[in-house]
Amino acid sequence: MKGEPIKSNPKILLLIFFLSWNSYSQNQILPDTFPEVAHPRLLLLTGEEKAIGKMLEKDDQWRKLHQAILTESDAIIALEPIERIQIGRRLLDKSREALRRIFQLSYAYRLTGEEKYFLRAEKEMLAISQFSDWNPSHFLDVAEMTMAMAIGYDWLFENLSSESRAAIRHSIVRLGIEPSFDSKYNSFLKATHNWNQVCNAGMVFGALAVFEDYPELAQKTLERAVESIPLAMKDYGPDGAYPEGYGYWGYGTSFNVLFLSALEKVYGTDFGLGQAPGFLESAGFYKNMTGATGLSYNWGDAGSGSGSISPAMFWFAQKNDKPSLLWVEKKHFENKDIFRFTGNRILPAALIWGNGISLDAIQQPASLFWKGQGANPVALMRTSWTDPNAIYLGFKAGSPSVNHGHMDIGSFIMEADGVRWAMDFGMQDYESLESKGIQLFGRTQDAQRWTVYRLNNYVHNTLTFDDQLHLVKGYAKIDRFSEDPGFMFAISDISSVFEGQIKNAERGVAIVDGKYVVVQDEIKALEKATSMIWNMLTPADVILTGGNTATLEKDGERLFLKVDGPGKINIRTWSTDPKTDYDAPNPGTTRVGFEYELQAIEAATFKVYLIPEKSSAEVSTQIPSLSDWGK
Fold first, then answer.
1. DSSP 376-412
2. Degrees (nearest 5) of the Cα angle 185, 132, 190?
3. What are the pLDDT digits (tens) for 531-575?
4. Is 12's pLDDT higher than 50?
5. pLDDT by residue (tens digit) across 373-425?
């Protein structure tokens, strides 16, 4: 199957998008009176534990996860309550640990009735209620702490003494909700990224938990959140690619789902919010962002390494009536120590949203290709969902200007034979930079952010001209693509991030015959000579075997890198050592690629072949120009 871009007036497309947005948002009006829903009312109503209990009796996988939560809750009992220890500008690690502890302890109590879990959760909440504040200057900290306290207060309400209720309830209002109405702290209301989702979700949980005692404040909080969160949900349009990448999909989207699920339980509706263009489709984005190795495609400020179970994916599978969305979650259950999951602070939600889903019955996805446009377009393709040695190729366009974005336009990752040959560093720990005085979150061209080695284009698997940075204002989409397994590809015109550096730059990436990968660049210079660097970051050992060839070796496997281009091409390597005292070390990695001097107005084509050893005899050098791909 081939895909071609629709040729339409962009202003008309934008009008259609906003009309569709308005059509789903017109019903976002909360009733004046609060529904008569007794505690517990957040996520799991009274008596719904029984349905989870029946699932546990029938399904060994779910029973193991349930037991892991109980075992972890037993371990939490022995821990001292969290103390208010702030690191730099954040209290966030304490807020997250509070949510993890209180959610799991509260779940353990509701499913077993064992008093030890109730008492330990109460002890944690009473300690937190005595904090001087929950650090409103970094409001994510307040949001997650408020959600933690709201869940514990609501789920354990009937057993809490009147004194405990008053102390916890007062802290939810005084330290959680009230600061959110202070203009010094509530910029999240206008944000179009994860801060909006997380902070509004935390405030909604707090408001729903204490509604009967603070009806006016709670109603204002809920109405405000329902009005505000669409600003962030617009970023999922048109088809589900989440601009902030894998890690922040796991963060922002999970809290967005918590928000919607909480509304549904209390009001019986999410007021149409879940129908935001691209929101339900974004589960496909997340699923396809995991490669054949189990590692995620970690572009932008995402952590490296393999992903973990995502409770939100079970909500999406139910809403889309599509169990195959859970293929990667199923593999996590099968391939990993299930006790690893207990570090997930919203883990009990998996059993709530996954109720009724048999993990053993989940079938592999039908499609090997996924594409999304939006603010940070991406194309994701593979040769198999079941073969651990499959080829996986991820390719991104987009813009450095998105929240948590890097200068990585045109970048790609590639896996084969169980090895990630072309990699991305992902994020550097924020505190390691902020503690050195780096202003990390600027998005202008001269922002200090772009001095960080892992964030600029020099280390990403893309092009650099005349040693200059990519342009922050630039934007590229996926222009053409094909799902044909014989020649699966995506093409993007990435010229806009090189404005003033070269005239045109178009990149295509393809999996050829399911055997190997080609990365093809077609470049045209301005009326001046221009130096170009083609770069690929790899964890492999690189052996230079000829002017235009190299062999990469890792974990007993080999990949051949070959370049076809004009004139003489000499592959070389560069160090990935830190460039400043604030850059993180990068052991075990190498940059491999080549340099080329473009003459004035020269048009040049470069084809880089990434060939697994087993396919080395099957490579065709007859790859056509990009304009003929798919024809």
1. S-EEEEES-SS-TT--EEEEE-B-TTSTT--S-TT-E
2. 10
3. 999 999 999 999 999 889 999 999 999 999 999 999 889 999 999
4. no
5. 999 999 999 999 999 999 999 999 999 999 999 999 999 999 999 999 999 99
Closest to 484 in 3D by CA, of 446, 449, 442, 513: 513
Distance linking the first and last C-alpha atoms of the chain: 11
pTM exceeds 0.90 for this model: yes
Contacts of 154 (CB under 8 A, 6+ apart): 39, 40, 41, 42, 208, 209
Sheet holding 541-546, edge to edge: 2-3, 480-482, 487-493, 504-512, 516-524, 603-612, 557-564, 549-554, 541-546
Q: Which residues make beta-bridge pairs with 378?
A: 372, 396
* Distance from C-alpha of 232 to C-alpha of 189, rounded to nearest angstrom: 9
Task: Answer left, alpha or beta for residue 519, where phi above 0 means left and psi between -120 and 50 means alpha.
Answer: beta
| 624-631 CB contacts, 8 Å cutoff, 24+ apart | 625/522, 626/491, 626/506, 626/508, 626/520, 626/522, 629/480, 629/482, 629/487, 629/489, 629/491, 629/508, 629/510, 630/2, 630/480, 630/482, 630/484, 630/487, 630/489
CB within 8 A of 273, min separation 6: which ones? 24, 25, 28, 226, 229, 230, 233, 259, 260, 263
